[in-house]
Fold this protein.
Amino acid sequence: MQIETLPAEKQDDATSMTLRMTGIEKSYGAVKALRGVDFELRRGEVMALLGENGAGKSTLVKILAGLVAPDTGQIEINGAVTTIGSTTRSQTLGIACAEQEMSIIGSLTVAENLFIGGVPIAGFWTSARLSAAARPHLDAVGLEHINPSTRAADLSVAERQLVEIARLIANDAKILILDEPTAALSDAEIELVKATVTRLADAGRSIIYVTHRLGEVFEIADRVTVFRGGHSSPAQEISTLTLDSLIEQMIGRKVEDLYPVRTGHSGGSILAVRHIRSNELAHPISLQVREGEILGIAGQLGSGAGSVLRAIAGIDAIESGEIELRGKTLPPAHGLRQAISAQIAYVSSDRKHDGIFADLSVTTNMSAPALRLISPAGLMRHRREQVLACSNADQVAFSQSRLHQRAGQLSGGNQQKVALGKWLGMTPQVLLVHEPTRGVDVGARAEIYRHLRQLADNGMAIIIASSDLEEVHGVADTVITMFRGRQVRTSPSYDITSHQILKDITHPEGAHA
Amino acid sequence: MTSQLISRAAQAEGGLSPGRSLERFLVPAAISLVIVVTIVVGGLTNEAFLTESNVLAILRVAALTGIVALGATFVTIAGRFFSLALAQTAVFGSVAYALLLQSGLPFLFALGMTLVLGVVLGILQGVVVSAGANPIVTTLGAGALLAGLAGLATGGKSLRISDDATAWIGNARPFGVPTQTWAFLIVVVIAFMIMRSTRFGRAAVLVGANRATAELAGVPIARVTVAVFVIASVAATIAGIFGAAQFEQARMSAFIGLDFDVVAAVLIGGTAIHGGEGSPLRTALGAIFIAMVQNYMLLLGWSFGPRTLVLGALIMLAVVVFHMARQRGGRS
C-alpha cells in the first residue's frame, strides 16, 4: 500500500494509518490459510472484512488478537513495526476483539462484566464506585439507559452485545474487532449496534467489522477488504462498490441469481394448520402448504415465526387448534416423535446446539433421524447406513469424500447441509426449516436455496421461517408475515414487496407500539 | 443408482480421518503395548509376578473390575458421566443373593431374583436421571441408600453362604481359567456387539454426543438413559454375586475402591468423559492394565499411599494424553 492511494485529506496526518499488515502468510500444517495478505486500517474508520467461510478472515483476526503468530509478513501499528504473538501483547497495543460467541456472564452485574479483565480502581472498591467507573463506558456505546448494577442476564441480546463492546473500550482499545456482532440480533436490535459502531468510529477508534450481512456493510463501513482463498483485495472505498460487485468478489464468479427460479407447479394440499395456539403463540395461526410449495414465514426474533414451526414439529405443545396432514388430523398433543413418524422434519435455527453432532462423523449425522431404517430388528446394517448417507449427501450436493469427517470441522454452509440433509433419509412430506442460512456465506446460501427448491419440486411441502426478509421474499412461493406472535398477512410472494414485508414485521398497521 | 452409491460408499468408508483412526486403532494398540511392556518389566523384575497363581489372581481381579467398568462405559458414552453407586450396588447384590440363598431358595432362583433386583435399581436411577436430575448426585444418593439398606439387612455382620453351585461359580476353573474371567470375556463380546451393531448402541452415542440434537432427531432419550443405568447396575450386581461366591460370604467391606478402579479403567480406556465416544474393548484393556499395576505394586510390598499415588498419576496421564489427542484430531 502506497501513500498515494490515500485520499488527500488523510495524507497530512502520518499517524492516520493505525494498522498496516503486509505480506502476511500463515499455514496450518499443509493448509495455507493466508497466502500473502495485505490489510490496512485508518484511524476512525469502519473497515468491513468480508469473505466466505474459510477465506482467511478468522485467521487474520486471530493474528491480531495474538492467538496465532504469522509465518511471514510485517505488522505496523501507528507507523512502528511490531510483533503481536500473545494476547497480552495484543491488548497492550490497544487491539481488542469482541467474540462471536458472547462472553457476558449473566449472573454478574453489567459493571462487573465490564471490568472482568481488571478493576480500574486503586485499593478498595465498592459496587457504587464500580458503577461510577462503568458509566462513561456504557454511555460511549449508547447504553445510557442501563443501570450498571443491573444483572447482565436481564439485558436483551443486543444490549449484552453492546456491553461486550463497552468492555473493549474499558480496556482502552483503539482497534476494535467485531466478529459478526449482529449475527444473533433482530433487525431493530441491529440498528442499535450499527449506531454504536458509527459513534465509536467518529470518536476516533478504528473498527474491523466482520460480517455476513452485506446490507450492513453499505450502511456503516467506510472501506471494505474482501478475502478469498487466503488472498486479500486492496481496501476499497464503499462508494465504489455495489452489492453485486461485492458478492462477485467474495465468491469469485458472477451471481446469476441468488434465488432459484420458481417452477410454480404445486399439487394438492399436504399440511393444513387451523387456528393453532401454543405457549409462544398468543394469537391463533392458520396456514396451508401444498405439494411442491415453499411457504416462507418472515418475522423478527420473538415474532413467533419459529414458534409456528416448533408447534407443527411437536416440540411446543399445541393448546388449541388442529393440524391436518394429507387429510388426516394429527393427534392434538402430538409429540416430536409422532411428528417424525408422520414424516414431518424440523431443522432448527441453531445448528451447533441442536442441529448437528459436531463430534461425530457426517455419516453418523446423516443417519441419525433414520436409525430405524438402517437397523431392522434393532441391528445396525452398516452398509445400508453408508448408502443412506451417500444418498442424503447427493441430494444436498455434499461431497461424499468428506462423509467420514467430523461435522464440527466443516464450514457453516456444509454444516447446514448436514443439518438439512440428515432428514432426507426418512423422505419427509413436510420439511420445516428455521433460519435456513444463518451463519452461511453467500455462495453456500445460493446453493441451499437451490436445494430447497429442488426438494419442493420433488414433491415436498416446505416451510421456512426467517428473520431475513429478502430470503423469504426470494425463496418462498407464499409469504406469511408475523409480528409479536400475530399473523399479519398471508400473500403470494409476487403480490408483496420487500418493503411491505419489512413494514409488516417491524411495525404493522394496527400494532400497539 | 444403488450399486453406484454402494461402490462410492465403500470408497468413503476406506478413508478415515486422523482423529478417527487414532481412536479406533492407535489407542487399543497403545494400551496393548503398555500392557505387554508391563508384563515384560513385571516378569523380569519380580519372579512372583508371572507365576500361574498370580496371573490367575490378576485375571480374577481384572474380570470383576472389568465387568463393572464395561457397564459403566455405557453410562459415560451416553453422556451421563459416571454412576457413583456401583460399589454399593455390588455389595447390595451380594447381600441380597446371600439372603435369598439363606432363605432356602434354590440357586438359580436366587441368582435370577438378584439380577432382577439389579435391573430394578437401574430403572429407578435411570428414571430419576432422565427426569432431569444430575447423574452424579443421583447415584451418590442411591449408593448411600443401598449401602444403608445392605447394612440394615446384615446388621453389619458378614453373611455366610454354603451352596455348592455358588462355590463352583466362585472358584471353579473351566479349562484352567477362572469363571470370572470367562464371564468377563463373554461380557466384553456382548458389550462390543451392542456398541457396534445395535440401534441402541448407536442411540447411546448420539445421546452422549449431543442430547439436544438427538432429541430433535427423534432418538428416545429417556429410554436410552434408563437402559444405560440398567446395564451398569446389572453389571455391578453380577460382580457382587461373583464376589460373594468367591469368598462364600457377603460382606459390607467388600468392593472398597471398586468405584475408583472402574472410573480409572473407563478413563484409561479413553472414553470421552462428556460422552459420545468410547469403546468397551478399550475399557476392558484399561481394567486389565489397572489390575496388573495394582498387583505388581502389592507384590513389591508398597503401602496404600504410593499405590494410590501411582494410579492417580496414570489416570492424570491418560486424561491429558486423550484430551490432547482429541484436540489435535478436532483441529486438523
